[in-house]
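New to this. Explain these tokens.
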Amino acid sequence: MVRLHLKKGNDSLFLHDTTVKQNVAELVSEVLDIYDLRLKVLRLCDEMQSLAKHGHFLPSNMQGLTEDQIEELKLHDEYEKICVPQGGSVECPDPLGRRSGKAPNESMAEVIMKTITDAKEGVSSKIVTSNRTLTVTEVQSSLDKLKGAIMIVYPMKLPSYDPVQAEIDNCEDLSGTQASLEVIEKDKGSLWWAGKELMPEKTLEDYVGKNEKTKIVVKLTKKGSQAPGREQQMTEDQKKQMMAWQYRKQEEMKKLHAADDGDDYYNSPWANPNALKNQFHGIGDVKWGPR
């Protein structure tokens, strides 16, 4: 199997196994299935953290308002009595005014946070260092765990406009957000290797040869974007080690030069330019001057 190390820019994403016979178009589709589902898991984790701290999402016409303003405008959250977390809620106002402030109790919040930790570990880019691949099945498993935690804590479901529920129902609206820039649709993705874009009509064999034990670094981009930068020859850690070695070498040379600045060696026997000539004439041990 050919092992692909997927990157976006300089950031590692995950490892993926394939064969040299696979069509590039099919490969891009497989990679994007994992990539986009992984993004969904990470988005859901972020929103679930807010849910565990501050409760369900408020209606758009109540967000950012103080309690006095809500009372003055006679606004009402129709889900306040419906979206009650298992075991009751505790007051924890949202400083951003986006959520109700009726958070799950400590035990239920712990269920959510523990599930978030497990899900993030399951799709973390750190698994690349463990030489583990990531599959759609594994990412879907992390997503199912998150959904299960929400069903446990909120058995009556969340409002449809809550970002957590929207992600679960696959009706999230990412327009105008940073997250929308990260998502790559299936027909708009492209893979690059060795400074070349992999053409969808070709197979991987056309680029890397017939060796099934190859491991390559592949860059994921959107179609039409400029070519991603080449891989660095050295990692940041290797650069730091080399700079530290060069600094130590310079300091050693400075010490040697400082030690050589004296002229005492001029009087040493080995520094006499006529030593060999005197030795041939038999006057090597003759010393001149008064005794």
Remarks:
- The chain has a mean pLDDT of 88.
- Residues 24-54 form the longest helix (31 residues).
- The longest strand covers residues 11-18.
- DSSP finds nine helices and seven strands in the chain.
